[in-house]
Amino acid sequence: MLEITLFYTAATVALIATVMAMTRANAIHALIYLIVSLLAIAVIFFLIGAPFAAALEIVIYAGAIMVLFVFVIMMLNLGDKGDRQERQWLQPKVWAGPAVLATVLFIELLYVISTAEGPVSTTSVSAKEVGLSLFGPYVLAVEIASMLLLAGLVGSFHLGRRYLERDSFDVENSSARREAE
Amino acid sequence: MDGLNIPLNHVLLVSSLLFVIGLLGLMIRRNIIFILMSLEVMLNAAALAFVGAGAYWGQPDGQVVFMLILTVAAAEVAVGLGLVLQIQRRFKTLDMDHANRMGG
After folding, report:
1. Does B2 score more than 60 pLDDT?
2. Which of A2, A115, B73, B77 has its CA 20 to 30 A from that of B26?
3. Mean pLDDT for back-to-back runs of 10 residues, chain A (181 residues)
4. What is the DSSP letter of A121?
5. Residue of A4, A175, A38, A14 lying closest to B66 (CA atoms)
6. According to the model, what pLDDT value does residue A49 have?
């Protein structure tokens, strides 16, 4: 019974935090709400018998990916101007149409999942089983994932390096201009 | 954690609600940072559905796919945030409507 209560509490927290994250004007506030949502989903993973997935959710999603977001928002340094701009964009006439469409989609999803029955398994799947499966039948998927990560690494390095180079280029240009003046 | 009776229905319900909220955020936001966050929410909802289904059958496959989704999310965010920095530098704004032309 306790687990059931925990599940519904975590689900409510996750949903509320996600709604708050999607409607904030300040990017950092949205990010903190998103982290709360991820932690709540990690609790759900733990409750439905996936402790390894719960740990990965916290370590990689809340720990690594969100830190990337924080760093980029810090580098952009948006400030109050960005907040005002966001508030101006978030008028009801902007979100009413998409909200209706999304609700229709949600009702369709409800209809589709209403055929699923029965409780989730009572036994938890351990990290050992996941590892055996990952490097057994799914080893090709692991290889493809490594290629994807390599592509992501090369792509982000390329984009970020051009950013840095152009920055120093601009600085040189402006100092040269200042000397000319 | 034995003796749970969480219905699969409700796990899928939470997952689809999260997905729809993410989709809504994707549609109503113009700031590219929020668009990336919405994508994260949607990927996360899909991952929740996978893990829930895996738990329903008591098989590790759901968690394996969760890890693959995690790698996709990590690669996507790394490239996406690199693009955010480029867009901010070039257009001096994060409004996606200003970045609707390729090339240049």
Report:
1. no
2. A115
3. 86 94 89 94 91 92 90 82 78 84 90 81 82 91 94 90 58 56 54
4. P
5. A38
6. 86
What was the pLDDT predicted at A160? 80
Q: Hey, what are B48's tokens?
A: 């929740």
* Burial class of residue A98 (count of CB atoms within 10 Å of its CB; 0-12, 13-18, 19+): middle
Residue A160, CA distances (Å) to A37, A156, B96 in order: 29, 6, 19
For chain A, the residue count is 181
**Facing residue for A156 by CB, picked from B63, B72, B79:** B79
Using a CB-CB distance cutoff of 8 angstroms, which residues of chain B are in contact with residue A117?
7-9
Specify the pTM.
0.86
Please answer whether residues A65 and B40 qualify as being in contact, where contact means their C-beta atoms are separated by less than 8 angstroms.
yes
Residues of B in contact with A118 (CB under 8 A): 7-8, 56
- A173 membership: H or E segment, kind and range: helix A139-180
The per-residue pLDDT for A92 is: 80
Would you call A82 and B94 a contact, using CB atoms and an 8 Å cutoff? yes
Residues 6 or more apart from A145 whose CB is under 8 A from it? B67, B68, B71, B72
Looking up tokens 């733990």 gives A46
Instruction: Find the residue in A nearest to B30 (Cα).
Output: A89
The per-residue pLDDT of chain B, averaged, comes to: 87
CA distance A181 to chain B (A): 25
- pLDDT tier for residue B79 given thresholds of 50, 70 and 90: very high
Say what the alpha-carbon torsion angle B59, B65, B67, B72 is, to the nearest 10 degrees. Answer: 180
Residue B1 has pLDDT above 50, yes or no: no
CB-based contact A40:A21 (threshold 8 Å):
no
